[in-house]
Write a structure and sequence with these properties.
Elements (H helix, E strand, L loop, with lengths): L1 H10 L4 E5 L24 H4 L2 H6 L1 H17 L4 H11 L3 E6 L5 H4 L5 E3 L2 E8 L5 E3 H5 L18 E5 L8 H13 L2 E5 L10 H8 L3 E6 L11 E4 L2 H13 L1
Parallel strand pairs: 1-2, 1-7, 2-3, 7-8, 8-9
Antiparallel strand pairs: 4-5, 4-6
Helix pairs in contact: 1-10, 5-10, 8-9
Bound molecules: 2'-O-acetyl adenosine-5-diphosphoribose (OAD).
């Protein structure tokens, strides 16, 4: 039984680390990027999610971001987020590293969340650096496109997320790689594992001796390296694992 095997590995973990991707929030109603119904099946990521295109045409970015932001702000954690929080509380996970910007790990009370791609909960003025809550800006997108800074009166606002062509927050990737080197169990949930440097994290963990567990709806390029692959929905599989551990 693959789920039982995964539960046994996690039960005995002392320095377990999780890496999550868009799939963990799919059951909260936020569409993934790749795969069925994914955002990148509708849009070219370089055109709507690169810093180069953002600077050339902020409205084009914001028109796509408006819908996704509305959905993400209304979303609530699902059983997968809560199960990861429970694994942290019981000492099996030291942190959850995420490529997601939706804040749902924090909402499910995970304490040590490392956001590799920033946070969608805030925006920042590209001129004066002032930060505002995304929810404030979301409320005025119907009348202001693209939104501009209210403090300096003119700068373009950009969500505090990492766009293609931008560097990852240095402290976040360094902390994640350090924890990956120390991990005895590396749990990857809901990520296609095709975007780097995020996908370096399980690679480093495996090279450093961690047992890799992949929980994903579809195959990933890392499945061959894994001690256990569980094909399924994280909102179902993760609570099942916690229930087996709590036994
Ligand atoms: P992807 O959209 O690339 O992959 C999501 C994965 O989750 C897919 O392999 C799905 O099969 C799987 N999946 C879908 N629903 C699931 C469920 N309920 N349970 C488990 N798995 C499920 O998302 P990421 O790997 O997070 O970056 O993408 C990485 C980065 O690419 C994102 O952070 C974003 C994107 O372009 C930037 O925008 C910089």
């Amino acid at each position: 039984m693959t789920v039982a095997h995964a539960a046994e590995l996690i039960r005995t973990a002392r320095s377990g680390l999780a890496l999550t991707g868009a799939g963990v929030s799919a059951e909260s109603g936020i569409p993934t990027f790749r795969g069925e119904g994914g955002l990148w099946t509708q849009y070219d990521p370089i055109k709507v999610a690169s810093i180069e295109y953002f600077l050339a045409d902020p409205s084009a970015y914001w028109k796509v971001s408006k819908d996704r932001g509305r959905v993400a702000l209304a979303a609530r954690p699902n059983g997968g987020h809560y199960a990861l929080a429970a694994l942290e509380t019981s000492g099996r996970l030291v942190a959850v590293v995420t490529q997601n910007t939706d804040g749902l790990h924090q909402d499910s009370s995970t304490r040590n969340v490392i956001e590799l791609h920033g946070s969608g909960r805030h925006v920042q003025c590209l001129d004066c650096g002032n930060r505002e809550a995304r929810s404030e800006v979301q409320a005025r997108l119907d009348v202001e496109m693209p939104p501009r800074c209210r403090l300096c009166g003119g700068g373009f606002l950009k969500p505090t997320v990492v766009l293609f062509g931008e560097p990852l927050p240095k402290a976040a990737i360094q902390q994640a790689l350090t924890l990956a080197r120390q991990a005895d169990v590396m749990l990857v949930v809901g990520s296609s594992l095709v975007v780097y440097p995020a996908a370096d994290i399980p690679a480093v963990a495996v090279r450093s001796g961690a047992q890799l567990i992949v929980i994903n709806a579809e195959p990933t390029p890392f499945d061959e390296l894994a001690a256990v692959v569980v094909r399924g929905k994280s909102g179902e599989v993760l609570p099942e694992i916690v229930a087996l551990i709590d036994g």
